[in-house]
Design goal:
The protein is α/β, with parallel strands linked by helices. Helices cover 33% and strands 23% of the residues. The protein has two domains: 98 residues, LysM domain (Membrane-bound Lytic Murein Transglycosylase D, Chain A, Roll), CATH 3.10.350; 267 residues, TIM Barrel.
Length: 435
């Protein structure tokens, strides 16, 4: 049996589901981060995986020794056992999954963004599944001096899990806000531009990172060619030193798509200069917009299919949201603002309010309604679960692109990472050259 995504029905319990599939209740609870096994939401998606080979830890066992015994890379132990941490002591009696009854054929790269204030435990939980992490966000001031973040501890942690690190350059100000006014000088003053890029490259070298990400949005359309030339300049400098360049692209469906977010992002030019591109295929449902799926698969598909007409498939990362929105109803444009929560929190909120989770087949996204008794207000929540993630991963396979990436890694999502691990072999480029 490969795997199963089971949708909870009325009367189901963790234990009845475990009996049905012949797996332990403890595994279902752990794999799906279920807080209270006595309470499930109707419509909740549960990931069921089937261990094929399990190792029981003996006194003196080490990660390296166990991996060698079964002929697998050490990192595979962490990918197959999401609660495992990189600590020197393994308690005897602990059971570790060595192989699941699933053998994915496709190799992909995976990336994810993180701020420097991420909870280290949450960051660590994602690292076994990442090819790259992208640290957000470095910036520059009006003098071209670099604005840095405190991420050395995260780089060290990433490397412990064979994860490469890219430093993300944007128009960040020292107070954390965005300063689009600085774009004009960056794109038109070659001395200023080279100062910023050279400073970033020095920072990459000093921190032991593996490359750079460029995240610049809402660039005035008259700078389309200058922005592409800036990316070309960055690519030439980085390539010469053996570093990687990733560029984040607004979700376009045509070359001439109007709008400040889109016009300066020339897919063909930017895709030709960068090593990789990250499609920002999310935020159809957004904080100040009407309630809807954040990343509807039909819209995501449109963007990817256009991107493939301009950019080689082996350069494309499909962007995936790792967050949820809760809108208070009725929605009123200019007044209503959704509250951001995480995907695990969305399920727990459904359990708390006894809401039935529904699944929209067109967008391949889960949602539900609930009433908050404190003020008798109606709410709707759109989020991601393993069903919506599977739809996105199937698109990655169908189009045979380089991989996928998350905005962002700030929230835990263990069942997603296990699904990812069951569908793909995740390429690790830091340390050994093979996964």
């Amino acid at each position: 049996m490969y795997m199963n995504i089971y949708v909870v029905k009325s009367g189901d319990t963790v234990y009845s589901i475990a009996n049905r599939f012949g797996v332990s209740a403890e595994r279902i609870i752990s794999d799906n981060a279920i807080i209270d096994p006595s309470k499930l939401a109707v419509g909740q998606a549960i990931l069921i995986l089937f261990p094929e080979t399990v190792h029981t830890v003996k006194a003196g066992d080490t990660f390296a020794g166990i991996a060698q015994q079964y002929g697998i890379p050490v990192i595979k132990l962490f990918q197959n056992n999401p609660t495992l941490t990189n600590e020197p002591y393994l308690p005897p009696g602990r059971e570790l999954t060595i192989f699941y009854d699933v053998h994915p054929a496709k190799n992909i790269m995976v990336s994810g963004f993180a701020y420097d204030f991420i909870d280290p435990a949450v960051y660590e939980s994602a690292l076994p599944y990442m090819t790259y992490t992208i640290h957000f966000g470095y910036g520059f001031d009006e003098n071209g001096d670099l604005i840095t973040i405190d991420d050395n501890h995260l780089i060290t942690l990433a490397h412990a899990y064979r994860t490469a690190v890219l430093l993300s350059l944007g128009t960040i100000n020292r107070d954390g806000t965005f300063g689009s006014s600085k774009v004009d000088r960056l794109l038109t003053d070659s001395d200023f531009q080279n100062k910023v890029l050279d400073s970033m490259i020095n920072e990459i070298a000093a921190r032991g990172a593996q490359g750079m990400d460029i995240d610049m949005e809402y660039i005035p359309p008259q700078y389309r060619l200058q922005f592409s030339a800036f990316v070309q300049n960055a690519a030439e400098k980085l390539t010469e030193l053996g570093y990687v360049l990733n560029v984040d692209l607004a979700p376009k469906t045509s070359a001439g798509q109007p709008g400040l977010l889109y016009e300066a992002h020339d897919y063909k030019l930017l895709g030709s200069y960068a090593d990789y591109v990250f499609l920002m295929t999310y935020e159809w449902g957004y904080t100040y917009g009407p309630p809807m799926a954040i990343a509807p698969i039909n819209n995501v598909r449109q963007v990817l299919e256009y991107a493939l007409t301009e950019i080689p498939a082996d350069k494309i990362f499909l962007g995936i949201p790792n967050y949820a929105y809760d809108w208070k109803l009725p929605f009123e444009r200019g007044v209503t603002a959704a509250v951001t929560i995480n995907n695990l929190g969305a399920v727990n909120r459904a359990v708390f309010y006894n809401a039935e989770i529904q699944f929209d087949e067109k967008s391949k996204s889960p949602f539900y309604y609930y009433t908050d008794p404190s003020d008798n207000s109606e709410h709707v929540v759109w989020f991601e679960d393993v069903r919506s993630m599977e739809a996105k991963y199937n698109l990655v396979s169908e189009k045979n692109i380089r991989g996928c990436g998350y905005w962002n890694l700030m929230y835990p999502f263990p069942q997603n990472y296990l699904l990812l691990n069951s569908m793909f072999n995740i390429i690790k480029i830091w340390g050994n050259t093979v996964p």
